[in-house]
Amino acid sequence: MRRFRRAIVAVLALALVAGAIYAIVAVLQRSETLVTERCVAVVGSESHELATDQAANASLITAISVQRGLPPRAASIALATAMQESRMRNINYGDDAGPDSRGLFQQRPSQGWGTEAQVMDPVYAANAFFDGLVKVPGYESMEITQAAQAVQRSAFPRAYAQHEGMARAFASALTGHSEAALNCELRMPEAAGDPAAVVDELTTVFGTQAATVQGRSVQLDITGTQAWAVAHWAVANAKTLSITQVDVGGRAWNREKRDGWQSSTAPAETVTITVSAPAT
Asked: Which of 43, 84, 162, 228 lies at a CB distance of 3.0 to 4.6 Å from 176, suitable for a disulfide?
């Protein structure tokens, strides 16, 4: 009898321990502070990761290439260049080789790239880079290092090559040529989103969009690569714009679920971007 009682006690103790572990794991999984925020582009067998601010800058650069009607190769060259020059961040300092270099592409006012204020404007800087790139004959078929160097005139021209994989993956996703290829894992927003701000940012980088605001959502009647370009842009900018869900092409990205792109019943011919609600 004593052995039986001891066995029962041991089983109960193990059950209590297992229950406690399960509860702790569940709490940790729900804890926003433990979420590692990041954005990952997966194209084919390649997976590349950027911090959320880097991904947002990558989406801006790529969106401008889409607005200009440039091929995805142009975006790949630009992303590799920006990663090498500034780590894809809009920095306000240069280095010994270019003390007046500034911005995403480390463009130098002393070499005719524009004023310091202009090159610190990411939209201006990206357009200035593409202005230079399209003047390079045959840049579409060049190695990234050759094309980037033709524009930048860097002291380290071969350094651009190390970023080619990342650049190709993010360019393919952000130009819309690879569907459901970009996912950002984020904590939930701390502030309400503003659909008008989403429309303003979309217009800035993609040009005028036929967008309709309905409550907390922005709807765009677009399909194909353009739709996925906008959808991936929205995911890349979800952190700063408090975006909680993106629906496109029968797929949905949900910030809270953190399970990537999943099947959706939303119309295939519409992109819907939803922002967070005000706190109650």
From this structure: 228
